[in-house]
Design a protein that fits this description.
Mean pLDDT: 84
Helix content: 10-25%
Radius of gyration: 30 Å
Oligomer: single chain
Number of helices: 2
Distance between the termini: 72 Å
Shape: flat
Low-confidence stretches: 166-172
Number of domains: 2
Strand order of the largest sheet: 9-8-15-18-17
Structural class: alpha+beta
Order of helices and strands: HEEEEEEEEEEEEHEEEEEEE
Amino acid sequence: MSNSKESGFTLIELIIVLIISAILAQIGYVTWNLQIRKSRAFAAKTAIKNIKKECESNRDLGLDSIFTLLEPKGYEINSRNTNSCLGEIASSLISAVPNISNEYPSYFYDFKSGDISCDYKNSKDNLFKECINLPPNTSIAFSPDRGLSCREVKVGSTHFGYSQIFTAGYSSGSQLKFLKTTFKIGKKKIVVDGLGVQSFRTKQRGRWVVSRDGIKNWVAFTTKKINQSKGGYSAEIDPEDPFGIKFYLPNGEEANNIEMLVHQKPRGEWDTYVSPVLGDLNNNPKTRGWENYDPSRGVFVLNPKKDTTTVCDGRDSL
């Protein structure tokens, strides 16, 4: 008499098979979706090219400046009077605009110049990178040759000074620590602390003179802290101002102002501390940025002019 053992899948084996099937299905969907997007964008570009050929052919033959309207799937063709070669009234461009602008590029045809161009709003997606039109890169630290992904940002320029705060028993003011500061940029708070003692006097020709190396070191230290923070913020020392910082804000978020809170001196310490002062290059040199101080809130508030630029810092926008 022989025993027979029934064969079959165990529960663990079934779970593994299901997981593998789900992963393969996901990979297949992503690949399929990319191909769909590529084919629809190609169809839109081809439609614009055909409009260009038809409009220019009609012009050369002395026919009406109109084209045959054939809209590709997922796109709308826009022009004055529906199909005029002269384009829309405001821009004089014929446009192929996608229904989903975050996944597909737009294409444009200029009848007067004969040029075809494109624009893609999703700067983080490299599928249509030839259509991503970012502003010129004005950054030194985050230039394109860093090999990092680029993004469009708002940039706020600042300028920093300092004022001395003395404590009992130590009044020379040559060796100072910076008070702890908290920056608020948009919704983000960044704490700057821990630089250590800085020298604010140096000897020149046998005489002690005021040195600004301390504030330079603090500016460099603050820049480093911002770049180490999370949330898509970056910063670099202003190439035109060694006492200034350029704040690069996340794409899509423009801070109305930059705030700096200077904390009180720690209790029980006898060290001499110095307070950074937030201003800009247009501040009165006599006040050194103190006109930006709001005593009711105890913070410096600056609303710098914000330009749009491109930085290649590899950080995601929020």
